[in-house]
Structures are given as C-alpha cells and as structure tokens.
User: What shape does this take?
Amino acid sequence: MKYSKAFIHTERTINDKLDATSHKLSIQAGLIQQVSAGLYDFLPLGHKVLSKIESVIREELNAIDCQEISMPIVQPKELWEESGRWNVYGKEMLKFKNRDEREFCFGPTHEEVVIDLVRTKITSYKQFPFTLYQIGRKFRDEMRPKNGLLRGKEFMMKDAYSFHTSNEDLDREYNALRTAYFNIFNRLGLKVIGIPADPGEIGGDGSEEVVAFSKFGEDYFIEENGVATKIEENEVEKYSATHEVYRGIEVGHIFKLGTKYSSAMNFNFVNREGKKEPVIMGCYGIGVSRIVNAILEQNNDEKGIKWPVAVAPYTLSIIPLKYQGSEFEAVALELEKAFEKVGVSTLLDDRDMGMGAKIKDSDLIGVPFKIILGKRFSEAKEFELEFRATGEKKVLVYKGEETVKEILAMI
Ligand code: ATP
Ligand code: MG
Assistant: This one.
C-alpha cells in the first residue's frame, strides 16, 4: 500500500483531557474516531488490528472444535422474560419498541438467543457436547463509557457457549477453553493473569477472569501463594501495607453456568433412561475491541505504538528519502512487491515530505520494521533495517532478491 493512497490520518497533538495512554494512542495514530460517547468508528488501521485479533481467536477456537455462528444484535423481549432477566439486567440494556409496539433490546449478551437457537435442534443426550461461538457487536448503555475502546457502549465481543449432559464434561470443556484463552493472549503478546472470580450478573457455578496488566485497568488484585485475588478499589490502600497491589484490564471471562438458564428457559434433553434433564452450560467471553487498548497499554513508548507482529496493521514500512521520479522509486517498488508477495504487509511511504516526519508517522502507528533508504543508498547501496520493538538498527547492502531473503530471516 502506498501511504499517499491510504486513509491514515495521524495527529501531532492530542487532547490532554484523555487519560489512558492507550486511548490517546488510538486517537493519535488514527485507529478509531469517536462518533458519540462510547461509540467509535474503526478507521482502516484500527480495523486491520481488530481483524488480526479476531483471526487469532478464530484459529485457537476452531482448533478445539468450537463452531462459529452469528446471532442478531436486536433481541425480542419475550426471550428475556423467559430467563427472568428483562427487568433485572439493569440500565445497561437499551430497550426500544418497533413499529408494532413490540419490545426489543440491543443484546448486551446472548445466552437467551443461543438457548432459543439450540433448543429447537437438540433433544437427545446423543447430540452432546458442542460449543458455539460468535464474534460480534454488543451494546451496553454504560453509565460511564471511559478510555475509548476500554469501556465502550457498542463494542466487539467474542462469546462462546458450551452444552453438556454432565458436570464432568462441562469441566473438561471449561479447561479446554481456558487453555485456548491463554494461547490466544500469548499469541497477541499480552501479559495476563487468571483470577478466580465472582460470577456476578450472569450467575452460575464457577468463573475466572483473565486480566491484562495495565496501570489504567479498572481491576485491582493481589497475589498470594501463586493465586490472584481481586480486591475493590477502596481496599487498595489497606492491602498496600502488606501486599503488592496490581492493576489490570479484564480481557476475558469464563463461566460455568450449570443449569441456571436452561432450567429457566425449559431447555432440556432426554437422557439414556428416557428422562428429561436440564442442559448444562458454560459461557466464555473475550473483549475483542478492549484488547486493542490492552495491547496498546503494554506496547508503547514516547514515539508511539510498538505493535506485536501478530496484530500489526502493517508489518513493514519502506521509507525512501525521495520517491516519485527519483532513483529510489524503482527499488522501493521492487521491495514492496517482493514483501507483499510473501505475505508481509508493507506500507511504502511515497509522500513528498521530509524523512524525519515519515519516520515519526511510522513509529507512531507502530509498524514493527522499517527499511530506510537514505543518502547512503545512492552512494553505496546501503540502507537501514530498523526494529521498532528494540530500536535496533542494522546497516545492509542492497542485493535485490537476496536482500529480501536476508530480511525475511530477521523479521
Ligand atoms: P466489566 O466488568 O469490565 O464491566 P463484564 O464483566 O460486565 O465487564 P462480561 O459480561 O464478562 O463483562 O463480558 C465479556 C468481556 O467483554 C469482558 O471480559 C470484557 O473484556 C468485555 N467487555 C465488557 N464490557 C465492555 C465494554 N463496555 N467495553 C468493552 N469491552 C467490554
Ligand atoms: Mg466479566
């Protein structure tokens, strides 16, 4: 992609009212733009990052036979009355009427809808177990949307639901999902910790939150004998005297729901003895858009973002001293083509502006590797390969295809 064609709009200055580093960076690097409180556009760079996060999640879940589906955002009141949550979910649930005066909500979560889907298909114990998931939008009319994607009103979530005929089988799948979660966060370059949690709103028999370390997180916790325990914000001072208090962002949450929803919604199966029993369920969430900020919190410096390669919107920047009609044009194009061909997404900065400004933009938007074609290129075919994560620079001599191979071995 040529920079001049890309819809990338970075900002040199930033609203100093913004709090979290990740929020500042997401605006400054042009990942997102606010439409209204808690509502954001994803611009091309932000959208690419989101898609890469989704791909990692899909790969890990598909690998353990979770199956992807898609459910509507708008949900009918009747289903929420069946589960008994229409009047208890709280003000986060945005309700409205359609032209026929029927009531609906924007789904803050999808237990009701997924049960309604599955109960029409499943009758016998022979049809279990299985796990369904979707990656999609949720709407929660949060009282205080905060820090951009960290707490939005409309946000992206991966939600999975598992269905079982025994608690042992639920435990097995819960553990499989738990392992998949740590694989996902590891691949995304996130440092996280699992915290046994209070099931809260959703209710059930056991749950664990996965929290990414960040000083802007809303969760506080301490660690004792290798076990993390959540504490309240107003307890921080008390615990600080005796413990190190950590802070983090909840990026995932897994629950053993048991039969809470299936009993309420008359969702049963026929067992081996021909008797009806309520289906046993688990549910598993990941805050997909919130993860963008969690990654930003853990990967930045004074120049901007340092994306892990797995989620970078572009992997490589090519920054020539001059472009159009210059001696650099042909070689820059050749490099762009060669890297794109092997799947290294490349941003060729063809803009007619100073080298310093181009390097600043590349570092702000967080491209992991830069090829800098400067003065030494004309003289001795020398150029620099720079590593955004470490700041390391290597001087290389351009030798066509061989050089591409040499760089591929290093990035
Ligand atoms: P929180 O405690 O942060 O309000 P929650 O416990 O209500 O979150 P869950 O119902 O467990 O959230 O949703 C699953 C995941 O969705 C959470 O772990 C979080 O990563 C993400 N999430 C929840 N609410 C929001 C929000 N308002 N904006 C962005 N992500 C969110
Ligand atoms: Mg939660």
User: Anything to note?
Assistant: Residues 199 and 207 are 6 Å apart (CA to CA). DSSP finds twelve helices and 23 strands in the chain. The pocket of adenosine-5'-triphosphate (ligand 1) is lined by residues 109, 140, 142, 151-152, 155, 157, 250-253, 285, 287, 289-290 (CB under 6 Å).
